[in-house]
């Protein structure tokens, strides 16, 4: 398509419709497009369908804020900072979010299949487990596999016999092609080239699998600079639709070589939002109670942000207090 369009955070979120299927960049507590998720709640989006290889703080925010109707993936938490997604657990128990579980390998395979344009991913992963028990097919039990939902497969999986080498039974896991990929990257080139400064996780598959992609970044840099080391880049501008420039857009998750994960913020969130009224209090303070992302940063304060800022030599902050043996 050409060079992606640079738009504001508010404009980007305005493109997302109620009921859309979203997928995200990053892994657990790293490189999540949190500023976009806050703005999704400010704009009152609802009935969203999240597909995630693994969820995290951004998912918890959207779920706690009532924007999510459907969630499918393999895991949702914040590593040692919160081993249970407390908002997901609460909403699932209250039957306010419909959940469909997959193994980690299944979720990776589904988005990978979507990224290369094939209808399914063959695998033997997790066969014989309750992940494949029809009694726990959350979407089927809710009547959502009737073919009327374009982003929901008619079957959670099917089993076939290997026709080539007689290796026995295999699962065919349906591909997934979400409406939107919401991707955080520290650097984007002037022509849309995307670079991350650590592991790329499933970001490349998310970018290729989604119908449309918005990249939110710390800064735009000359594309010529990024092309000097092409192996460090994860996508070209032809794969990206929109770019949003938004410093500290991943906070409280981290962005390697830009800033550390805000462990105190995440740990406090997980401990204090186990009940809905507590989440609502958090949201009023950090989401609805500020006009925009920059007012959110003002609320956090320069001292906190500078403590998190990473060294360009090591990639992490030397000012963050870490655990000891």
How would the global form be characterised?
globular
Whole-angstrom Rg? 20 Å
| Poorly predicted runs | none
State the CATH architecture of the domain at 5-116 and 177-245: 3-Layer(aba) Sandwich
Count of helical segments?
12
Within the CATH hierarchy, at the fold level, what is the topology of the domain at 5-116 and 177-245? Glutaconate Coenzyme A-transferase
- Helical proportion? 25-40%
Kindly report the average pLDDT value: 96
The class by helix and strand makeup works out as: alpha/beta
Estimated share of beta-strand residues: 15-25%
User: Could you name the CATH homologous superfamily of the domain at 5-116 and 177-245?
Assistant: Glutaconate Coenzyme A-transferase
Rounded to the nearest angstrom, the distance between the terminal CA atoms is 52 Å
Report the major sheet: 10 strands, mixed
Number of strands: 13
CATH class wording of the domain at 5-116 and 177-245: Alpha Beta
H/E series, N to C?
Answer: EHEHEHEHEHEHEEEEHEHEEHHHH
Can you tell me about this structure?
With 325 residues, the chain is of the alpha/beta class. It has twelve helices and 13 strands. Helix content is 30%, strand content 20%. The strands form two sheets. Strands 1, 2, 3, 4, 5, 9, 10, 11, 12 and 13 form a ten-stranded mixed sheet that branches. Strands 6-8-7 form a three-stranded antiparallel sheet. The termini are far apart. The mean pLDDT is 96.
């Amino acid at each position: 398509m050409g060079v992606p369009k640079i738009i504001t955070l508010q404009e980007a979120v305005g493109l997302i419709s109620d009921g859309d299927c979203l997928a995200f960049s990053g892994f657990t507590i790293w490189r999540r497009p949190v500023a976009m998720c806050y703005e999704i709640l400010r704009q009152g989006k609802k009935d969203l369908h999240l597909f995630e290889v693994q969820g995290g703080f951004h998912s918890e925010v959207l779920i706690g804020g009532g924007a999510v109707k459907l969630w499918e993936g393999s895991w949702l938490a914040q590593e040692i900072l919160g081993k249970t997604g407390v908002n997901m657990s609460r909403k699932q128990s209250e039957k306010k979010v419909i959940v469909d579980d997959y193994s980690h390998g299944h979720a990776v395979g589904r988005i990978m299949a979507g990224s290369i344009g094939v209808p399914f991913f063959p695998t033997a992963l997790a066969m014989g487990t309750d992940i494949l028990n029809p009694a726990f097919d959350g979407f089927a039990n809710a009547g959502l596999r009737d073919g009327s939902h374009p982003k929901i497969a008619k079957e959670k999986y099917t089993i076939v016999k290997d026709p080539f080498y007689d290796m026995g039974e295999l699962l065919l896991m349906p591909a997934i092609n979400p409406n939107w990929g919401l991707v955080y990257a520290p650097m984007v080139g002037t022509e849309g080239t995307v670079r991350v400064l650590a592991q790329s996780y499933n970001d490349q598959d998310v970018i290729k699998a989604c119908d449309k992609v918005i990249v939110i970044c710390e800064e735009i840099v000359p594309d010529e600079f990024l092309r000097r080391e092409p192996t460090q880049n994860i996508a070209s501008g032809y794969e990206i639709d929109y770019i949003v420039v938004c410093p500290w857009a991943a906070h409280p998750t981290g962005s390697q070589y830009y800033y550390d994960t805000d462990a105190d913020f995440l740990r406090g969130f997980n401990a204090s939002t186990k009940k809905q009224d507590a989440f609502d209090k958090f949201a009023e303070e950090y989401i609805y109670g500020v006009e925009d992302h920059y007012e959110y940063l003002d609320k956090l304060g320069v001292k906190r942000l500078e403590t998190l800022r990473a060294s360009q030599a090591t990639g992490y902050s030397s000012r963050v207090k870490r655990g000891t043996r």
